[in-house]
Amino acid sequence: VNKPILYPWLTPVWQLLTRYHTQAHLPHAFLLSGISGLGKQALAEYFAYYLLCQNKAEAPCGVCKTCRLFQAETLPDYYQTSPEKVGKTIRIDQIRQLCQALTLTPQIAEYKVAIVCPAERMTNASANSLLKTLEEPTPNTVMLLVTDFPHRLLPTVRSRCQQVVIAAPEPAQALTWLQAEGVEHAETLLALTSGAPLAARNYASQDWLAKRATVFKDFLGILQHQTDVLALSQRWQKSYYPACLHWLMSWIIDMIRLKMVASPPDLANPDFIQGLQQGAKQQPVTVLFKRLDEVQRAIQQATGGISVNAQMLLDDVLYAWVK
Ligand SMILES: [Zn+2]
Known about the structure:
By secondary structure, the protein is of the alpha/beta class. The chain has helices at residues 11-22, 40-52, 65-71, 92-102, 124-135, 155-159, 171-180, 186-192, 197-205, 208-223, 229-238, 241-260, 273-282, 285-302, 310-322, and strands at 29-33, 78-81, 112-116, 141-147, 162-165. Strands 2-3-4-1-5 form a five-stranded parallel sheet, sandwiched between helices.
């Protein structure tokens, strides 16, 4: 059963979205962007649920015919387009199929609502194929594009959408929510996830803190030339290696901060300050910037939707430290 929820920190954005509807100037396309773990997709689903509801007031009623069909995932006027597998692209035939469907008049609801998520996973051909529908949508069509990386979308796609940028909530609100969810070490987790509550909860549920601590130990081993790079790169590859790369990036950024700011800077990894200070001492800042550049490029390749040789990627990133 699909019963979308509205996370408490999204209430201001929610009010903004519903105002478009109540004031009768609903754009035919929105681009919801913001860092991962803020609940953007959930918000898009909740807004779709609202637009499709027959008794909408401040929220979807949850009991009308379209609400019930929505919950049963059988509402014909609602479309969701995503990669068929996590990490893959949204193919042109998927977008063509969606655009074809959107030419129909709504069958039951007032609108046809389509969510494309994550929108940056559209290939250029897919995005170009969506453009025609974005330019000349049939009446009563609302498209909700959702992305963590708006700059990866074609500018022509971005410019045809009403852009809604979602920010991380106030730390106090995020902490309260995480504590109510029973998440331990909420403060550390929030620092690690740039304040994104759902990402923090996800970290906690998968024991990411323990995994991250292991990977940090590995990294310190590399800095001290006490770890066999090849063995390490194989180990990282077997775990979820894009996360290892993200951690590495955030440690390098913290080390750069430690070198460049006189007073103790705000770190993303305050719990690792000792190890980071040690590492920062050993490395000239120019070298750290170079390592940062390398790891950022590796992340882009690892998350860019095309298949990569993970082993080679990790070897390159890790060997650079011991050369
Ligand atoms: Zn309803």
